TrEMBL record:
Part of the twin-arginine translocation (Tat) system that transports large folded proteins containing a characteristic twin-arginine motif in their signal peptide across membranes. Together with TatC, TatB is part of a receptor directly interacting with Tat signal peptides. TatB may form an oligomeric binding site that transiently accommodates folded Tat precursor proteins before their translocation. The chain crosses the membrane at residues 6-22. It is a single-pass membrane protein. Signal peptide: none annotated. The Tat system comprises two distinct complexes: a TatABC complex, containing multiple copies of TatA, TatB and TatC subunits, and a separate TatA complex, containing only TatA subunits. Substrates initially bind to the TatABC complex, which probably triggers association of the separate TatA complex to form the active translocon. Belongs to the TatB family. Residues 98-122 are annotated as: Disordered. This is Sec-independent protein translocase protein TatB. It comes from Streptomyces amritsarensis.
Length: 142
């Protein structure tokens, strides 16, 4: 429950609790808080039990953790046989290497290259227009 609290935070909480409640009332406050946490856990456990009993035998293996979207998706991806077959046939590392090679090496391999289409070459930089073709910019006209 408190896995993400470090030692410094814990010491800070203890010091603040001593300052706020005082050393005389602190044990009583701790007992009250732990009793409240126990009641909340018992209430949630009984609610889970009631929901499972109301759903019937069809949902005997139902877990409330499956309602978390990440857990639900992970479970569905791991149990679906068609997706397992697709995942095993798809090699992401190979695909990424192919794409990075294509991006880093703009010159195509002549043995593997197909005949180029009649369209413009997008990998080639356009030539700069000659000086006489450039339109002059007039700052006063704008």
């Amino acid at each position: 429950m408190f896995n993400d609290i470090g030692a410094l935070e814990l010491v800070t909480i203890v010091v603040l609790a001593i300052l706020v409640f005082g050393p005389d009332k602190l044990p009583k406050v701790i007992q009250d808080v732990t009793g409240f946490i126990r009641k909340v856990r018992a209430f949630s456990d009984s609610a889970k039990h009631d929901i499972r009993s109301e759903l019937g035998p069809d949902f005997k293996d139902f877990e409330f953790e499956d309602l978390n979207p990440k857990t639900f998706i992970r479970k569905q991806l791991s149990e679906n046989e068609d997706l397992k077959e697709i995942r095993s046939s798809f090699d992401l590392r190979k695909e990424l290497n192919d794409v990075s090679d294509a991006v880093n090496n703009p010159e195509p391999d002549p043995a593997a290259a197909a005949p180029a289409a009649a369209g413009p070459d997008l990998l080639k930089k356009p030539a700069a227009p000659a000086a006489e073709q450039r339109v002059r910019f007039d700052a006063d006209a704008t």
